[in-house]
Each structure stands twice: as structure tokens, then as C-alpha cells.
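#structure-requests
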Amino acid sequence: MMTEYVRTTIKLREDVYQTLKEAGAKNISEKINEILVKTLFKEKKSLFGTMQKTDLSDLRDHEDRLE
């Protein structure tokens, strides 16, 4: 699957540009895309399956609450 790209201009701080340039002058766009994807499309955390397992010994009769 081929990813389509759109050309645009962004303004970078000089220190950010120098850091990206050190990663490779030809790879600046790829690095920016990688950073943006990681930042903007963070995997959402789910609470599914986070509760501890319980067994029947944790249950009590409803009559216990009346006392």
C-alpha cells in the first residue's frame, strides 16, 4: 500500500531543525511524520481486563448486610 504525501511548509525552531538534520538531511520529512503520528494517534488505553480475578469466596449473603 503506497502512502500519499502532501507538500506543505512548516516553521521549525532552529534547535528542532538541527536535531532533525542530524538524523539525516534526507529523512527530515520521515522523522517529522513519525513524530506526528506517534503524538497525534496515540493508542487509547482500555480498562478492559484490568480488574483482579475473584472467586466465590468473596461473595456474601444479602442477609449479612441487614445485621
